[in-house]
Queue: 4 jobs
Job 1
Amino acid sequence: MLSSVVIGLWANRYVGNLSDYLVAGRKLRLRLALATMTGTELGLVTVMYMAELGFMQQFASLYLAFLEAGTVLIIGLTGFVVYRLRESAIMTIPEYYEKRYSSRVRVVGAIVMVVSGVLNMGLFLKAGSQFLTAISGLQDEMSLKLIMTGLLLLVLFYTVLGGMVSVVITDLIQFLILGTGMVIVTGVVFWSIGWDGLSSIVTEQNGYFNPFESDNPSGKGPGIGWLQIIQMTVVIGSAAMLWPTSAARTLSCQSAAVAQKLYSLSSISFLARRALPVFWGIGTFAFFVSQPELFAEFEQAVESNPSITSLSAMPLFLGKVVPTGLLGLVTAGMIAAFMSTHDSYLLCWSGVITQDIVAPLAGPMSQRSRILVTRISIFVIGVMLLIWGLWYEVSSDLWGYLAVTGAVYLSGAIPTVVGGLYWKRGSQAGALAAILSGLLGLSAMGPCVEVINQWLPMEVNGTHLTLLTFVFSSAVYVVGSLLFPDQSQPETVGSAALT
Amino acid sequence: MYVWMTIWTILLLTSALAFLVVLVYVSTGVKAELQETLNDLKGDVDESRNHEEILNRPIE
């Protein structure tokens, strides 16, 4: 952790201009880009929610890992979207909106992106604190809050100072610690459960294996089924191309060819980031069901103590089966995962606030002023995260929350970017309508679904509403573009008009 | 169910091994890549020092 502070100070020497601060001067080679992509996307929050799914839905939840890896591999092999995006030499996705459509689309798109992104990362701190509580047995809530605040301040320090340069260097170190820790933990989990333990999920526990079946036979969590697989295909497919933190890595690559290769290789990291924690969750399930008394005690604690949820099961299990010395390495790896995700997310949203909201509205700004505004934004978002993370209670599973908040941005961004790159008739009006329609995705959040169901004659859930938002945003993009075409073709790079 | 479990377990094992390969791949050449990237960035820093006015010039 101390090294993060040193790196922050040291990396500051390599920031010569705005491009260095936001996209590391677009100079990332393949290995470095792969390390930072993996470090960013393999966060503690990912580990927690995938293990939670593994615990509740056992083997069936692995479909998410293969769905995502397959999508990322297809993008890597074809270069779909990412190649043209990198070729357009932009620094943020909303910057593309202005090149292809107009300044207004850029500002509106950036606001929706920041709302969606900050809400999305709002629960990262909570997930992190639940991991630390369960794995270390730390019960004092105040100490826990202080530790989480300290960790966040550390991330703020080096991100504010060195921008993308320090994020990339710390991501590399964190990737190596985290990656090694994950492989070792997977081995330990397999060793402690054994083939017999895994087999008992089939023979004794009526485990969940086939994701296409909508009933979860284990009775430990919700089912999956076709509709949810379609929802996840849409959400994960869109996120693979356009999730801003992944896109920031694409845009930081040395060339479009490197960006494309990055995606091909990242398919392995994306597979591992979901599959390995799911395996830990499966191990947790096998462990608990083999000890019914302990399982009953855990279920009772979940009901009586609001700070213990199904998220806590995996770290509790690791705390029991991983040897003490190794447990330190696991905890260090998970803290590394926590930090490497936070730094990238903070920089990404702050860069968008400066480049795509403040600068277009405030008028011409120098590079120096933009770096200053980005630094202030990083700090402000950090403070907001602390408040949001401490007060908001999750009403659905963590992955459900992340998918819904992510869909707010993605449902508008997909038609706007894909249409912009591959459809000549896409217009400003269509883009604005699609981006704003994405806000309908907020209706899929737990409390909103309850209100909607009071008004509708039939029952709807978050899956229905998320899918509807995607369909509606794409439809209004097409209809809006056909009804209100642009008067003149905008000056653009990488759009269908010129390619 | 055994068929499902065998398929999932083989895929899990494959993903763990593939991830190990990625770890080794990154570890083997990343030091040189990092050095090259830092050299490139140093070039930007030197240029900015020589032309400080660029950093203060308002851009659209």
Job 2
Amino acid sequence: MNVVLDDLLQGYAGNTVINRLSLTLRPGVTALLGPNGAGKTTLLRTLATTLPPRAGTVSFDGVVLEDERSARRVRNDVGYLPQEFGFDPRMSVADFVTYAAWLRGLDAPDRDRSVSEALELVDLVDRRRMRMGKLSGGMRRRAGIAWAIVGRPRLVLLDEPTVGLDPRQRLQFRRIIGGLDGSIVLLSTHLIDDVAAICDRVIVLHGGVAKFDGPVAELESLGREDLPGHSALERAYMHLLPAEEQQL
Amino acid sequence: MLGTFEAPLPAAVEEGQARIPIWRLLTMAVAVLPVLALHSPLAELEAVATRRFRHGQRIYLAATVLGSALVFLGGAAIALHPLVLLIIARSWLAWFGLALIAGVLLGWRLAWTLPVLVAVILFYWGFAAGEYRWWEFSARPPDDVASLLLSLALLCAGLIAYRATPWRRRTWRRWRGRSLRPDRSGMS
Amino acid sequence: MRIFWLHVRNSPVRWTVPVLVALDLAILFLRTQYWVGVWPETGAAAQVPAYLLGVLVAGAAAWAAAAPVRRGMQEQLSVAKVHPAGVDGYRLAATTAILTVPYLIGQMVAFAVTARTFPPGVLLWFAYALLGLSVTFLSVSLGWLLGRFFGGGFGAMTAALGWLFVLALTNFLTGDFVVVTGRPYLAVDAFTLAVRFGCLVLMAVALLWLPESGRRSRWPGQGLVSVASAAALMMLAVVTPPVTNRPVPEGEGRICISGRTTLCIWQEQEKYRPLMATLSGRIDGLPTAFTPPPEVREFGLDARHGLDERLGVSPPHFYILEGSPWSYGGMISTEIMSSTFAWRDPACDWGRMSDADQLRSDAVLAWLEAYLVGDVTPDYSTDAPSAMQQAWASGRRVAAERPLPEQFDWAAGEVISIRGEYCAKR
């Protein structure tokens, strides 16, 4: 599968948030970096088909999304986890993920298998009957990831998925993402370590424009020693910011 | 004028039906609304706020309560008999107290549940043998003492429930524990 | 089905069921139980809680409708492949199922109680059960509509009171939306039931097309069209008259007890046969000064019942109201007095009847009523003029204090005296 954005313009009210962005997403893990307000969440929501583009096109395997019907047609291939996701605290983990599977259009025979697979991937099988409200923050986020990946959607969009996770949980998260072979994973994050550990590609957004789009190693090579940062990636990220933002 | 319309409801009376004037229902709504408004999306943050917050909340509650009551009574004074205003005022106390109790127990957004449940009970069983029962505070005559005392009791219960923060409940439990424990002083 | 049960299991209103069941059964049993043993009365009594519970049901439905907004799940639901109407459809179905359970339990319990004797007319019970079901569906629909619009606690309270406003509106428009009794001469109108359920189905469709809260409409005017459609359908559902007169049955459709006066009741009222037999025996025992009518039928067993009684066209009849012997005893005694005194007899000059004699006849009427019922303490209250009430009291005192032969002598004497004063000899 591939997802192509062509000259995408996106925004709210009178503001432009994404400014003529063109890129192609292919299977693999892509990080979406950028300061707050850069347009990361807006891009994810556009790819999740919740926000129709104001201009430009979004196409899935060559099919351009033009209306509600075409958007809904591709949603069985899209898994989306918002930064703040909602849940019913009295719902069990299994019911929560089963609900996601149903919303994604999975039929009964596939649904059970997919739910089990997703729970196994996020290591919540032994907590499947536990209520969402009783889970710790980290487990709840893993349940959210299960929500996004149940049924192995070909496009997985994760908005700040590791916020609030402790180091062990972040390592578990990396293992989960590593298990999503064949899917396009777009991961919005502020955590450079996660980018370095699991991502093949990184897109740096600033002011709605892609300042960088390429392999992680290539981004690393842009870093200068005179810039702030504790790693090559951090310094490379700072290099991409406007001059007035490069110093702390 | 809307208050003079009547809602037919089944009742435990001859012929099985009573007509409840809308003003009795509006009184409940007006009393419950300010309590519903106590709900805040920031509740978890406000739980650790200083006295300033609780003080502000009390002022807010008092202002919304008095404001809504005055507006409603003012409107009712135009359309309804003066004696009916006394009934409205009395029942308003009870509805407000019930709303506070429900809000404390179930959450401010569910403050309507207990008043509505009590209303159903009042409307169905509240009239018998040609008069309203003593506990039918929303319809007894304006000079009825028993229903007034009941309304005041419900109001007090509601205010106590409102004041019963987790720390105060702990203090009260300790007081009760101390008063129940036998006095060991002077025993050998 | 599994997804349906998932929605039921996780519905925010499932905790209301025990409360509503308790309230339903309390309304059904904690008043009178005259309905036991008569199918139409059973069905009607068991559908009464639907109107009262409707207040809480509407509030609960609104609470359930607003759940996705309350839980912050709108973003996740907006990415669903399942059509929003499908997502909402399951939620609405689960909410309706849960909130209907208390009503159905009440009907089942009422059915079980009357089924011990299983009198005729069970289909009449079923029709009333469906009527109450339509009322419950209506309250759920109203709650859902207002919950989607206003959300959270405000929506729930608005829905609860909104239900009462709808009842007030029906009172203003038609006056007969709320059905509280199942008199045997009435039956639920099948056409009304069909219209109501049809409207409810269409209303559910309209509700499912409400735009998602906080989101753009899928097409222009979506919200307005959905709301307007739902409101119009609700109005159509409530203005259709719920009950209609039953056709007069022949033969086995009625139970008649022969005597000086033949008393006939609807076959559904089979449980009153022994009471009617007792009453018939008491009529047989009346002094010959009394001239009971040859036949008195329960209302509805004659096509002329209900016609203008001033014209004397409506034949003698009586009602059995909530099983009260005073209801039928009182009316039968009135018919006996009418027949005895022959108020329309041109040979009598009742126009010059004095007030004192009027009160004497009132006393005889009260005595006759007490004699037929077999009790001296009425179960009804009255605001008749005090002189009339005193006359009634004196008649009942005769029934309470004197032995039966003396009562008969007194009553016969009064009848003969009063008739003799105003009627030519017959």
Job 3
Amino acid sequence: MAADPTLRSRKPDPARGARVSRSPWREQAESYFVHHRKVASDSAVRMWRTPVASLMTWTVMGVALALPVALLLLLTSLQGVSAGWESSARVTAYMQLDSSLEQTRELAGEIGSDGRVAGLELIDRDRALEEFRASSGLDEALDYLDENPLPHTLLITPEENARSAEGVAALVTFIEGMDGVERVQVDLGWLQRLNAMTDLLARAVWALAILLAAAVVLVIGNTVRLSIESRRDEILVAKLVGGTDGFVRRPFLYTGAWFGLGGGVVAWILLQLSLWWLSGPVERLAGLYRSDFSLNGLSFDGGLALIISAMLLGWLGAWVAVKRHLDDIEPGEIAGG
Amino acid sequence: MIEFRQVTKRYDSDHTALRQVNFHLERGELAFLTGHSGAGKSTLLKLLMVMERPSAGEVVVGGQVLNSLPRRQIPYIRRHIGVVFQNHQLLFDRTVFDNVAMPLEVMGASPRDTGRRVRAALDKVGLLSKEKMNPLQLSGGEQQRVGIARAVVNKPPLLLADEPTGNLDPKLSADIMNLFAQFSQVGVTVLIASHDIALINEMGRRILTLDHGNLIAGGNPMQGGSGGR
């Protein structure tokens, strides 16, 4: 009646898990990796066997991934431009017409010694007129004037830490309060508008990226669900001979990751192609605006990050499908009547 | 090795598949399970495989009570039970070798170990020369023997068979039964569900007979209960 002790010892022991008796851990770990490699290559081979279907899934993923990444790249390019302009933001102070060069020099010395000022250039009214004459083409019209209409001008470059919108505004107030200063001009308004716009765009892009990532997860989930259906028999047998849930899931998780890999590569190719296609016109347009604006492509690291995120998304999609459908397949129906 | 204590299995629709079944099988014992179709043979096997849980009573395998076994532990119990099906449940997308290797793959056996044990199992059923073939290329009897090789490849202490000779001619059926007898001689407990009465009587082994969910013959008399009704 009592169970044989040798058999008793064969009952499953949670601490022992799947370990086979006598098998040293090194061999165990080795066969674990061998198994992973086998499952990974099996899943890849299965994908190659249906090239058209796989390519379509990759393309869907690629498009869904390329779109938000392209917008992100555009955004970083724009932010680079505004950052460039911000660093070259200059405060221009126009003196009153009747202030003398001496007075202006004195003032320049005072402003130049302020901690927030990195550099200062004084353009006296004669030089200003010359420059204006040279660049405006109003040569003759200027000759009709009795006297030089231009004031002495100070070009002030703020210190690095004073370049924020508030810092510049404070500096402007400080200079405006000084004697002999007629008007202070700083062209920050449009910069702030550009910044606000890129901030808004950034949020929109992230919202779009999240939606499209969800779409990718669902697409992979559906594809993996079909693959689970087509391998039903195999799953049943694996469960019958004592395959754990992890064992049964593994091939499908790899399938999801491979779909992600393909999708990531397609997305990268799409991005490089559209960049190549757009770079000519963008350069011409930037040239017309005398801007050094250029579209930044994806760096190698960025591309790698794109592919890894795509694989993670694929894995996640597979996991969702596996979680929902694999538990439904139980070998109960296998032994009929 | 196997013990049923007052086991009752009721399905939702007022259908009682097993009623207070009592019996036990010793290590190395070979027994047949017979009865009309729908008598509860498959239900009894499913309880042993933990595909179903009893509504009442206890099912014990190798000293382990299966009733309260957490779901996570089920795979580890199944690794100690070899099963042979009437329709053999082979996979036709892989070779005979790979089919037989599945229980070892599931356990994480090393490739070297796997090769050795699969060939030993195939040798035992006389199919060593066909390891690289697809099961589709084999005859019905050969397919059934592949199924048996898969069931015994990891040397389980318990072997269950559900109508293993259902589709085979008498000569092949006798061969298969002899194979099962050999396993029981080396200490494997074997339980075979079958309604091939002629073949069963020929074997002269213990016979458990089910009738509408009651065990009407072959139970252990000393335990009393419905087994000796």
Job 4
Amino acid sequence: MKKFGRFLARNPRISFGFVLILGMLLFWFVGMVTVGISKAVPLSGPPDMPPSAQYPLGTDSAGRQLLPVLIAGVPLTLEIGLLAGTVGLLIGTVLGFVAGYFGGPADSVIRTAADVMLPIPALAVLVVIASTIHTLLSVEVMALVIASLAWMYPTRTIRAQVLSIRSRAYVEVGRFSGETDFDIIFSELMPNLMPYLAATFVAAVGAAILAGIGLEALGLGPQDKPTLGMTIFWAIYYGATLRGMWWWWGPPIVVLVLVFFALFMIAQGLDRYANPRLRHAA
Amino acid sequence: MTQFLEARNVTKIFGQGLMSNETSLTVALHEFSLGLDVDPPSITAIVGESGSGKTTLARTLLGLAEPTRGEVLYRGTDMRQLTSAQRHLFLREVQVIFQDPFEVYNPFYTVDHVLETPIRKMRLASSRDEARQLIETTLRTVGLRPDETLGRYPHQLSGGQRQRIMVARAMLVRPRLIVADEPVSMVDASLRATILECLRQLKDDFGISLMYITHDLTTAYQISDNMVVLYRGRAVEAGDVGHVVKDPQHPYTRLLVGSIPRPDPHHPWHRDGVSRDPGDLSATAHTGCMFADRCPSVMEVCATREPPLFQTQPRRAAACFLYDHAPALSSSDLGAVLGAPPG
């Protein structure tokens, strides 16, 4: 724990990103305790009210109170990102290690599959999938749908990293010390790839949140949950921008900008940590 | 009798791929045969210049590279067909020391890792205390103080210390043979002697044979019993180290011996007038002796045929037509001339 504290002190970008994310979790926690999310449903107040003492962030055209909507939406957005990012990274790590370490036909198959999938615009495919299973779509199912198209990039980059370190002399020494392929992957390769995997994970979370918001803003997200993207969808649907209702579309966008900024800072900090040559650049 | 480790007609060609053509191929080893026995233990030096194929030979014998043609046999079994039990036995009996004493350490771990792993994986000790004891005694054997070594990261130790830990690692396993690929070429000259002394001690005190791969004739002369001189993937001379160095027969060996710097400013290098660099290493259809283009005693026959190894003395062989009165070695097996050390 103390070591982790020192690590943060030496990597201001990472700490900054963590503080932002923690701030958002704190907002959610305090909000749940003081305000609650029971008023995040339609008809909880008069429609189209600007921010006031009674309705801190105003209400939308369906009468949802927007502060509870925001409190409910922040964790949902983070959840989709974490879930889809984790699944995507797990698939990517397994495939990347299999392709990079064992090579051969498995490598050809995995590499070709990733290369074929990579240039297809994920959002187009996600729109098709999401609109097909629209009625079944919960937050978790949507995360899995996003993850199904989030593994290619991690696979490709992790494979490249594994290729570069699997031929190091210490891997050969490990083999002569009696280590099996399993030992070599987990005790020689994995530890050295940890910062890299962490950076890939953060990038994957960011990409997953972006894909999720995109689906939701098109109205293809889970219908029963007030996610941030869904709020933006309703704001567009009811013409909130034209009607000058900044309190409707503004807060979710601010939160999203902060989320992406935090993830970007963490990813960049990890990249600098994993790649010492970047530390002196710029 | 099956030999402990044997290369049989091994050819290794690099650069075979989709984009390569005939001229981009590099023949690192050509129809190379060498048998090594470990009983009684001996030190065999493999000497050659850069590109002579000595590292390729080591990697092929260790199973780290597959021969393009031919086979490597461990106790009579092709390396590619070892069962997993035989593979385990191979690791118990054959160990390795690499050239670069930094690359061989995983930067994530302290140096303890390379010593603890073989003990854990090969069950060399039955308890933690026994393992610790084993590590400490082994470190002392190679001349290191355990309290100054253990718990450090590789970058906190000198190249000499790191290489001695690698010697200790190989020694822990108590193999029959250690293949050492240029173990001292990246270590400070002042520390070379101590590491070479460690290696000789392995043979004298623990009965471990050594295959010492080097470009440096003088250190090879210091510690080894036998010597094989490689030139462009072929063995050009082999035999007892004293004979080879003091009375080189092959013109290339003479060039090597003549290139040893002497502490005498009036003594010129290259008495034979051979100073040209080797030609390109590509595999363009080459007939005749590979050394013919640099050889001072080149004859007409050298351009037409490749010389076989002639057994000039009971424990000597040279691949040169200067000795075609001597019987040619059948199947070019160098094992025949690399006997046990005298005495």
